[in-house]
Amino acid sequence: MSPEQPSPRIRKSPEQVRSAVHQAVIDLLSDPEGADLTIPAIAQRAGVNHTSIYRRWGSREALLADVVTTRLERDWPLKDTGSLRGDLIAWAEAGVASIRTPEGRLLIRAVALSMPGSHTAQGERAQQFQRRIAAIESIRERAAGRGESPPSLEQILDQLIAPLYLRAIFGIDPPASGYPELLVNRLLGGAPGA
Amino acid sequence: MSPEQPSPRIRKSPEQVRSAVHQAVIDLLSDPEGADLTIPAIAQRAGVNHTSIYRRWGSREALLADVVTTRLERDWPLKDTGSLRGDLIAWAEAGVASIRTPEGRLLIRAVALSMPGSHTAQGERAQQFQRRIAAIESIRERAAGRGESPPSLEQILDQLIAPLYLRAIFGIDPPASGYPELLVNRLLGGAPGA
Q1: Which end of chain A, N or C, is less packed with Cβ atoms under 10 Å?
Q2: pLDDT of A70-106, one tens digit each?
């Protein structure tokens, strides 16, 4: 919209601001000393005015949510394998690959940090959670469209998302092989065929 | 040991220091603005010299680990029900009760934060994780002593700890009733009897 206020800093385009702010969030999250993840600290690191951040994102949670959903779409793309089991295994495989990297673990910690706090109603928290895991909702919808009966979101949360995310958050590596299939077999039951 | 250096602050006994520092950690964790959880910030809030914290705990992770294991022992006590299934359900019931409170959710977020970072070897992280969930190890050992075959720690992590912890971290309430039994039945399989 209107240009930034004049400032001693080099003026950035909106896309440059977004990119610098996203990178600043990732950098601060990576700080092993547990740096202050506040909007002023993010603004300083990104070299932008903190008013630009408030104007564009409104709150720290909204900014974090933008960062994590952008990165999740990029790092954890959605495959259409033609079956519910195949889609879930592909999702879990992407997840396992991701949490084997420091950046992937960081992203998942950021997903947790970006969730609205306890002062937010349970319904709103559940909605925000669904936004973070939009890929899982797409997998469920496609399965329903094919006439399959997908598990509930709560079942997928408990048996597929939770083990992957908790291992990322706690830094506990998944088993070396067969882990995506193991989780999906537990979730769907029955034989791994079809 | 030797008394604190003279300071304008009121001198505290070691137990008062520990209590004030623990409370400062909890307060900073509760800050919805995401306050800086650094040793200087903790020291300032607790009204103690930051050198006292470094001397006593050595690092932020060690301090957080002391806070969370102390609180977990107090808020999530271990029951001996006489069977593996009973012990696991009792543990999950305590967990569900805990994560229905803001303090309980905070504690679990702190358990995650207290885990050593990616720069630490996987074996050390796994050890630290076992320290955080010492109750689960006790339940497994008691079961083995009775001749039962408890699931592996990894199975318990994926199917019992992960769903509870992730719901706490993400602020997604567990189902209103029967959730501890549901998780334990999934973990142990078979009928819920005996």
Answers
A1: N
A2: 888 887 878 899 999 999 999 999 999 988 888 888 8
- DSSP assignment of A105-117 equals HHHHHHHHHTS--
CB–CB of B78/B138 below 8 Å? yes
CA distance A156 to chain B (A): 10
Does A186 sit within 8 Å of B172, measured CB to CB? no
Asked whether the beta carbons of B173 and B167 are under 8 A apart, the reply is yes
Kindly report the number of other CB atoms within 10 A of residue A121's CB atom. 9
Interface predicted TM-score (ipTM) of this complex, two decimals: 0.81
How many CA atoms lie within 13 Å of B189's alpha carbon, on the beta-carbon side?
7
Question: Rounded CA gap, B16 and A119, in Å?
Answer: 31
Nearest-neighbour CA in chain B from A161: distance (Å): 9
Q: Are B18 and B52 in contact (CB under 8 A)?
A: no
Region A109-115: what's the mean pLDDT?
77
Write out the two tokens for B172: 């997604």
CB contact under 8 A, B125 and A169: no
Determine the residue of chain A that is closest to B37 in CA distance: A34
- Picking from A34, A120, A129, the nearest residue to B37 by CB comes out as A34
Q: Do B117 and A172 touch (CB under 8 A)?
A: no
Distance between A34 CA and the closest CA of chain B, angstroms: 7
C-beta of residue A62 within 8 angstroms of C-beta of residue A105: no
